[in-house]
Write a structure and sequence with these properties.
The protein is of the alpha+beta class. The N terminus and C terminus are likely disordered. The longest helix is centred in the first third of the chain and has 18 residues. Strand 3 and strand 4 form a beta hairpin. It has a single domain, classed as Alpha-Beta Plaits. Helix content is 41%, strand content 23%.
Length: 143
């Protein structure tokens, strides 16, 4: 049953607004200003993907899967070439890390994701980064 649920999430029909690199940078600037003004933290998850030229369908499915897991206030866009960023307003780094772990655990095509980075403003921004060891991510116990 769990596999059926995961499969249906991965192949969901959620609409996705995948922002360009420039648009995502503007979103990050807006969130930094909002964070400075309201004194709160926000996080961003960056998924480093395999070369996407041959795998555009996987990118589409991956973004739909992300959209099924995210809040309406979260934003998805290209952070850099072959990197999809997810901006998570009002989210601490620990919560972003837990979400990244859950997303990675539920993906059918885990080898499509090469690396996951968590950034948190203002504590881990922009040059200090936490990179998760993906070999340990799949070792969680099923509930």
């Amino acid at each position: 049953m769990r596999n059926r649920i995961i499969s249906s999430l991965f192949h969901s029909t959620h609409t996705v607004k995948l922002y360009s690199i420039d648009d995502l940078r503007k979103i990050l600037s807006r969130e930094r200003a909002r964070s400075d003004r309201n004194n709160h933290e926000f996080s961003m998850i960056v998924f480093q993907l395999e070369s996407i030229k041959l795998q555009k369908m996987l990118v589409t499915d991956f973004c739909r899967f992300l959209a099924s897991r995210l809040r309406s206030t979260d934003e998805i866009g290209w952070f850099a070439q072959n990197q999809i960023g997810v901006v998570l307003p009002y989210t601490a780094a620990a919560d972003a890390s837990a979400l990244a772990n859950d997303i990675h655990a539920q993906l059918q095509y885990r080898n499509f994701i090469l690396k996951i980075q968590i950034f948190a403003y203002p504590t881990v921004w922009p040059f200090k980064k936490t990179t998760h060891d993906l070999s340990k991510m799949g070792q969680r116990r099923e509930r």
